[in-house]
Design goal:
globular; 3-methylmercaptopropionyl-CoA dehydrogenase (chains A, B); Butyryl-Coa Dehydrogenase, subunit A, domain 1; homodimer; alpha+beta; oxidoreductase activity, acting on the CH-CH group of donors (chains A, B)
């Protein structure tokens, strides 16, 4: 049975010693003192560990079933969802006007990591609801907000996102779902949507579907897409749940993982829908959900790596196999634990240094969102807009790789479902795909975000790196181990950007052939920056003689590992990028 | 429904234009003219495509079941096994004295790729039998050979390898299974073995288990291990199947993949066993099977990548999504096919360039085995001994990565089991683990094989690379695109070897911390050498104006991709290796 222990101490270190959230002047951050966030994280952690994690394997084994039109979730899910709802966890960062707790997003992100690590499939029910909440909150009328948000904040009603159709995923311009305007101002929605996470289930009184559809006669392609609120049950004037709407579940998909989440084919048959936002501007409204969802997916990537890592460590300490090459370390046992072996160490250090760097990166991203939402900081918005594909793409690609490495520590037992390591990998796999496959993230990064606002945001990122290096260049403890490798990696990133600038205009393929490599290169530099910041904080604490010295020493040693062993990847990515499109595009399609 | 088309043309190119098997003076190779091997590969390919591949998804969905002590294989497996047996495919390279066809191992390897790609789980029944055949052939008495081999060549009786126990996998010294000597010269075997592939099933009249066990009173550790033949049914004097032996199936493991293969817990309860080879020298005999199995597993790794690649290409050509950045390419359709997009190309080229390089590498390895077995070539034996962990570890790590990349091409559909891409990845995953987890392969490579015979074999490999470069340095078509990158990569490999030599003695951890990186670095250089050889052959054919020019041009373009986009990884691996053990071994176990 896999274990999960919420990394409260490390979350706290990132929040308070690396990002210094309590010193920020972003409204609401003044509440985030260490005692307060620790109390929240401890409570959340208990639910993650004691309520959600024990249901992770149950969800995988039982899956969801469709029985006479009713979707049933695995045993125990409803009770766990009640616990999550009743504790107010689903509305942690929601608007108090609608019953939310009004906490900053960064705290919800920290809590979200523990929930997602404990049970990814389960947490998608609340996660999708949050996305739908945000879209209605940002684009809904006062009446729509009053009708839907209070119930969604509490997850009495859950939400979904309906984008994909059988013949179109990324290319939503091909969409066929139609919305016929009715005399009463509502629309009749007809069409089929697939891959709808949390599409239907037996845990809430209503499901509020946000559905992209085309109003006949509107512009072609994505410019003619509108967004609609389509409740499973219509809502009576008094706010109570009314008649069943014309939406039904066609089937539940058989997936590689996240079996605990009901991924549905949804059929809309003249279902009543209400326009959300403006006609034909549905893509913009959808992106409110989508950008949030992409950050949430990045978090899923490293959260699965975290829980897989924890189990790999346990196994490596317990399993006795072979002797240390430098001499017996466990003379009373028949063999030494796996953890004495250098290649097992190398594997575990890859995981540890990735997860901790990713955590800092994701939480830093969350502070940028707060700065934008709470303080109207346009620069922060530009930066997180640039970073979103990196957080989504890099953290899920690497997060999946790390679950595979964690599984490897178990040898043959890793391949047996009973041990749970296969599930972490199978669940993590989807994060590379949904909310825009990672190739699409890379395209978004290189094809759109880099040049956004005249390249201002990527320049701002480079300035961040440069000024951090400059401010700290007198810090001997950081120089060789952190600042120098960060500077080298950052130069590789700039060189890649330069290659795109010089070649992308005359041959867009030359830039896009390097898009995935660029996303990874960028991710490494971000984690390098995070590690440099964390090492600085840890060193400062050590110098001051405050706190748990062993924790800070471990932090610095782990950062050194990342800088020495992971950052050298930037040169490889740059070499690939610099090779351009010639070999990538050389073959005719028939030659494959 | 996934497709599989045996790559007969490419196998033939490798055999006859790159390795030039028909020109070799290894006994038996004179038979391998192009018409003959093509006929064999075409026939094998038909069975792979028409008989085995259609059962791949069936095996995954049904799995094997244990019913009152009887293991049942998925529907259709027995009939397919009959087709394989009746065609003589199970004994292709077996000794004619025992009913085999006596073909070189290189041809059996080429056939094996197609079988393994078509249905990995199914082919393990014959594969394990072949390994057991080889061990009995090499170490059995004349009587043992006469009793068992003819039935195993035809797979009327199948075979297994029994090494692992619940508490020991890699560290076989901890083994508990006992073999008590009996007065009649036989032994009573008692103990439990786990993860026994093809451990029992309903497709053969008998199962011949090769079981490692300790004879009480023997030396401690691995030096006290002996190997035994333990048939499921005892064999009567007339060779017919007799009484049931004391071996039974405890359970069938629930695995991440290869569901079509019955991975069993085997219980031995005073089962009658016959010593194979010498008392206490069981490890040596086992390695006859093990080395063969490791090459077979390397082949599984790239074979799964091949079939996954084929399907990814089909999907990328069929699925219409988005428009080419350089202008519409499919004006009559609602969108362009995925294959126009640079990042999809990058993904497919990664796969294609890996698989074709891996194929050449595996078949080259098979020629070394033939040279050793058929011509007593000790140098060839040294080289393949060095290469075995690289073939196993590198081809399965990368092969799995490529199945994941192939799955990614499908977007959301890749995660749905129905499309079959998940199965390729889940099946390929085991190849990184069994027959020695890849970390153990890396340890074998760096800790044992590098220094074997005074480092003679690695020097021989470097000489091979150097002389290839030297012989061809006047070839302008090869120089910049192939020879220069190969030289650079090979220098990285030598530098890594030098680092190990200078540091490994005084600090073994410094070498072993870089073992996995070294295995990958070595693998890239091997594939680089293969690509240089293939490019030379293709260029020669183009210059001569013979054959299918488009095929040769594609070959060269694919090779250029590998050299430009994959070989830069060697510098990253070297940088990691050069960082030594400091950061890898920095933490106390408690700090993880």
């Amino acid at each position: 049975m896999p274990v999960y222990n919420p990394p409260v101490k490390d979350l706290s270190f990132v929040l308070h010693e690396t990002l210094n959230v309590h010193e920020s002047d972003v409204p609401g951050y003044d509440e985030l003192d260490r005692d307060f966030t620790s109390a929240i994280l401890e409570e959340a952690g208990k639910i993650a560990r004691d309520v959600m994690a024990p249901l992770n394997a149950v969800g995988d084994q039982e899956g969801c079933t469709l029985d006479n039109g009713v979707v049933r979730t695995p045993k125990g899910f409803k009770e766990a969802f009640d616990t999550q709802r009743e504790g107010g966890w689903t509305g942690l960062d929601c608007d108090p006007e609608y019953g939310g707790q009004g906490m900053p997003y960064v705290l919800a992100t920290a809590v979200g990591e523990t929930f997602s690590a404990a049970n990814m499939a389960f947490n998608m029910y609340a996660g999708l609801t949050h996305g739908a909440y945000s879209a209605i909150h940002a684009h809904g009328t006062d009446e729509q907000k009053a009708t839907f948000l209070p119930k969604m904040v509490t997850c009495e009603w859950t939400g979904t996102m309906n984008l994909t159709e059988p013949h179109c995923g990324t290319d939503l311009g091909l969409m066929r779902t139609k919305a016929e305007p009715q005399d009463d101002g509502s629309y009749k929605i007809s069409g089929q949507k697939i891959f709808i996470s949390a599409g239907d289930h037996d845990m809430s009184d209503n499901v509020i579907h946000l559905v992209l559809a085309k109003i006949p006669g509107g512009p072609e392609g994505v410019k003619g897409i509108s967004l609609f609120i389509v409740p499973k049950f219509l809502v009576n004037e008094d706010g109570s749940v009314g008649a069943r709407n014309g939406v039904s579940v066609g089937s539940i998909e058989e997936k590689m993982g996240i079996h605990g989440n009901s991924t549905c084919v949804m059929n809309y048959d003249e279902a009543t829908g209400y326009l959300l936002g403006t006609e034909h501007k549905g893509m913009r409204a959808m992106f409110t959900m989508m950008n949030e969802a992409r950050l949430g997916v990045g978090l899923q990537g490293y959260a699965q790596a975290e829980v897989a890592y924890q189990n790999a460590v346990e196994y490596a300490k317990d399993r006795l196999q072979g002797r240390a090459v430098t001499g017996v370390e466990n003379p009373d046992g028949p063999a030494d634990p796996l953890i004495v072996h250098p290649d097992i160490r190398r594997n575990l250090m890859d995981q540890k240094s990735f997860v901790e760097g990713a955590r800092a990166f994701a939480l830093w991203g969350a502070t940028l969102i707060d700065a934008h939402h709470r303080a109207g900081d346009a620069d922060a918005n530009g930066l997180i807009s640039l970073m979103t594909p990196v957080i989504k793409g890099f953290l899920t690609d690497k997060g999946f790789d790390m679950t595979i490495q964690a599984q490897q520590v178990y040898g043959g037992h890793g391949y047996i479902e009973e041990w749970g390591m296969s599930q972490f990998a199978r669940d993590a796999r989807i994060a590379m795909i949904y909310e825009g496959a990672n190739g699409v993230q890379a395209l978004d990064l290189v094809g759109r975000k880099l040049a956004q606002d005249g390249g201002k945001h990527v320049m701002a990122f480079f300035d961040l790196v440069k000024s951090f290096i400059k401010e700290n260049e007198g810090n001997e403890a950081l120089k060789a181990d952190f600042l120098d490798p960060l500077k080298a990696a950052s130069k590789d990133l700039q060189a890649a950007g330069m290659f795109f600038m010089q070649n992308g205009m005359k041959n867009p393929n030359a830039a896009l052939s390097g898009s995935t490599d660029f996303m990874h290169l960028f991710g490494h530099v971000c984690l390098g920056l995070m590690w440099a910041r964390m090492a600085k904080a840890a060193q400062a604490a050590l110098d001051a003689g405050t706190g748990d010295a062993a924790f800070y020493e471990t932090k610095i040693a782990t950062g050194r590992y990342y800088m020495q062993r992971q950052l050298p990847a930037t040169a490889m990515h740059l070499a690939r990028i610099n090779s351009g499109a010639d070999t990538v595009m050389a073959l005719d399609a028939e030659a494959f």
